[in-house]
Amino acid sequence: MMNAEDHYLDAIAAEDEGDIEGALESARAAVKADPSHAESWWMISSLELSDKSQADLGRASRSLNACRKVVALEPSRVDAWVRGGRLMADELGLYEDALFWWQECREVAPFESVPLVEQAAILTDMGFYDKAMDRLAAIQEENLDVGTTQFTRISRLHALVSKAAEQDEGNHFRPWEKNHNGWNAIHSRRNKGPVSENLIFMMTTVPFLMMEVFISRALFGDGWTGFCLTSIMILITVIMGMRFTRGLFQKVNRPAFNLLRAMDFEASTAKLVIPDDVRDSRLYLFLVGRRARAYQERYSKIVLAGKPLPRNWKPRLPDFDSHLDEIGIIEEGEDSNELPGFEEE
Question: What are 20-44's pLDDT values in tens digits?
């Protein structure tokens, strides 16, 4: 009788030959023979996602389940934690579950910065900017090492959260509030698709660039000096145009961003808040069509179930200090993070 290692080696050979289904069959046989064979579970997770275009709800769910098995067997496998967290958020829309997942990762790897960055990104997408800022601040307070890629992402998140913090908190769109002003903007744009940043740049900046090219000779003359001055003028125009375009892009497409947040809220809670007239709109259909296949399939099941948000709904957030118990800094029993509950208006 073949043991788990034999099945695992067969899976590797099948994968090398391009036989994904055969590799999956052998990897599943390996974990059936030995449920504690972590490498076979990891191979199953990878093989289920081998073709991203085919990563439907079933494949994404099986890959996530395999990640759960890996981290249960080998909690120090940060790569498994990363894949699992991103499957939850990016592929399945399980944002609240992803927050708890990353907090569990913090408990076994309290000196890793990745969970904090991922939590900050999710909290920002959900509109909990104060909590997101706390996660980013914790990276510096706990003096955690940050890679180059993570540093770029942290900088972008920090700029986004800082800008949101400057705004009136009442302007932050909360999908669970039926009378929030953000819904009015969504209704006004529901039959129009988002405007691309490139189109805005073409309409606002390119005409000035063309004009500068035509008048540059009259302004600076011919020769090397004229060429340098023209190049500087064009560069300045491009930089200013990109900055103006970015701001206008955010403003014009705010209803689309708000609707995205409402969709993600529904995906995370499995409860509905989007009005029917918006759900049938061009903007809604456009945004749904741009999501991952697994997200679309799971989201459609939530919409078909038609469960409304209950009056006593509250956001589920983990105790962001739970990892400190593992390193002996705080005592058990301290208050966990809690946000105001839902009240139907």
Answer: 999 999 999 999 999 999 999 999 9
- Start-to-end Cα distance in the chain: 65
For residue 121, the model assigns a pLDDT of: 93
Backbone angles phi, psi at 50, to 5 degrees: -60, -30
- Tokens 């986004």 sit on residue: 160
Domains of the chain: which residue ranges? Answer: 181-305
**DSSP tag of 190:** T
- Scored b (16 or more CB within 10 A) or e, 126-147 reads bbbbebbbbbbebbeeeebebe
pLDDT at 66 exceeding the cut of 90: yes
Q: Which tens digit of pLDDT belongs to each residue from 215-266? A: 887 888 778 888 888 889 999 999 999 999 988 888 888 899 999 999 999 9
Q: 194-224 burial, b if ≥16 CB within 10 A, otherwise e? A: beebeebbeeebeeeeeeeeeebeeebeeee
DSSP-assigned letters across all residues of 274-337: S-HHHHTSHHHHHHHHTS-HHHHHHHHHHHHHTPBPPTT-------TTTHHHHTT-S-TTPPPP
Neighbours of 80 (CB within 10 A): 24
d(CA 54, CA 74): 28
Q: Diameter of the chain by CA atoms? A: 87
Q: Phi and psi for 309 in degrees, rounded to 5?
A: -70, 125
Please give the full DSSP string across 33-73, using - where no structure is assigned: H-TT-HHHHHHHHHHHTSSGGG--HHHHHHHHHHHHHHHHH
pLDDT at 149: 77
